[in-house]
Write a structure and sequence with these properties.
The protein has 14 helices and 14 strands. The longest helix has 15 residues. 36% of the residues lie in helices and 19% in strands. The C terminus is likely disordered. It has two domains: 59 residues, DNA polymerase, domain 1, CATH 1.10.150; 278 residues, TIM Barrel (Alpha-Beta Barrel), CATH 3.20.20.70. It starts with a helix and ends with a helix. It is of the alpha/beta class. The structure holds S-adenosyl-L-homocysteine and iron/sulfur cluster. The site of S-adenosyl-L-homocysteine has 18 residues, from β10 and β12.
């Protein structure tokens, strides 16, 4: 009931300046009001009309009657013992839930979700085991950022679209959200501090290239041959590994920006010396980075490799032409590591 009522309202987060102008125009208000509200919402990041000091009370009242600043409700925050990582659970207008993760370190990075569930169904990923429900709106994506920023003192320096969902299957809203995060008149996060990670939706990688977006692109490789990748990532049947590598080359040749390949290391699946060799062959001379992510177990059939196995794999990559980094996920104790986000049923959350 509560949520049904909210459906009728306009929500300001998610709108760009032109959209705000159009809403205010319909209310018979001058254009400059849009700029003022835009700044309150994205620059000062307030969540109450009363705090819009340069908006007359009468207009504040009219805004309250027909609109809300944010549509999402922050439901729960879970932190790990040393509190460098926190997981946020949100409830959306339709009752759906999503999670976002805050990680404080040398940089302060937040990991945002783009969909409720994920239809790609990678076999090693907790989100992939949930049923896919829907795309998030640009507003629902940006609101995750705003809530996390509000709740923490240190300024968020980086955003990664690596939470629940496949950003390139929600392309328009993800790009719109990134544009809102990037806008220098609003949140003002540098384009190179925003990373979009895709499981390999080939036509969207090409579109992203053609549209010349400056956001960083990451591709989840996770396998070294059609067969090896297909075993854990069924999407490889739709978009072959060859076509994915061609799209990666296309991106490099047109943008001259380096892709980061994510490579989740799964014990006995893709972590042998031979796999490392094959990875070098696959990438060939493509200028890129490779981010090796030791698997975060989710209680299924896949296991994290031992440190020894990780070293064997990395040693084989010692003289690779690309840079190799290792991501030790933070937040695994609170299921906030990479690929561990999955909203459990209410009963499970309650215990
Ligand atoms: N859908 C996008 C972005 C979200 S997943 C994508 O797949 O790229 C973000 C990253 O987490 C991906 O590189 C994915 O391969 C990795 N990942 C998924 N499950 C994981 C797990 N259990 N442990 C470690 N990394 C995982
Ligand atoms: Fe979806 Fe990414 Fe998880 Fe695959 S790894 S199921 S694409 S969220």
């Amino acid at each position: 009931m509560f949520y049904a009522e909210k459906y009728d309202k306009v929500h300001w987060v998610g709108m760009n300046l032109a959209e705000m102008e159009s809403v205010l125009n319909q209310m018979g208000e001058p254009k400059y009001r849009a700029k003022q509200i835009y700044q309150w919402v994205y620059k000062h990041q307030i969540n109450k009309f009363e705090r819009m000091r340069n908006i007359p009370n009468s207009l504040q009242e009219r805004l309250k009657a027909r609109s809300e600043i944010r549509s999402t409700v922050l439901n729960k925050v879970t932190s790990n013992p040393n509190s460098t990582t926190k997981k946020y659970l949100f409830t959306l207008l339709d009752g759906g839930s999503v999670e976002a993760v805050y990680m404080k370190g040398r940089r302060t990075t937040v990991c945002l979700s783009t969909q409720i569930g994920c239809a790609v169904g990678c076999r090693f990923c907790a989100t992939g085991t949930m049923t896919y429900q829907r795309n998030l709106t640009a507003g629902e994506i940006v609101e995750q950022f705003l809530y996390l920023q509000n709740d923490n003192d240190s300024t968020i320096t980086n955003v990664v679209f690596m939470g629940m969902g496949e950003p390139f299957l929600n392309y328009t809203n993800t790009i719109k959200a990134a544009d809102l995060l990037n806008d220098k008149n609003g949140i003002n996060l540098g384009a190179r501090r925003i990373t979009i990670s895709t499981a390999g939706i080939v036509p969207k990688i090409r579109r992203f290239t053609d549209e010349n977006h400056r956001y960083k692109l990451a591709i989840s490789l996770n396998g070294t041959s059609q067969e090896n990748r297909g075993q854990t990532m069924p999407i490889t049947e739709t978009y072959s590994l060859d076509s994915l590598m061609e799209a990666a080359w296309y991106y490099w040749q047109n943008s001259k920006r380096m892709i980061t390949f994510e490579y989740v290391l799964l014990s006995g699946i893709n972590d042998s010396k031979a796999d490392a060799k094959q990875l070098k062959n696959l990438i060939g001379g493509l200028p890129c980075k490779v981010n090796v992510i030791p698997y975060n177990e989710i209680g299924g059939e896949y296991k994290r490799p031992t440190d020894e196995q990780l070293q064997i794999f990395l040693t084989e990559l010692d003289h690779a032409r690309f840079t190799v980094t290792v991501r030790q996920s933070q937040g695994t104790t609170i299921d906030a590591g990479c690929g561990q986000l999955a909203v459990k049923t209410t009963e499970e959350n309650d215990d």
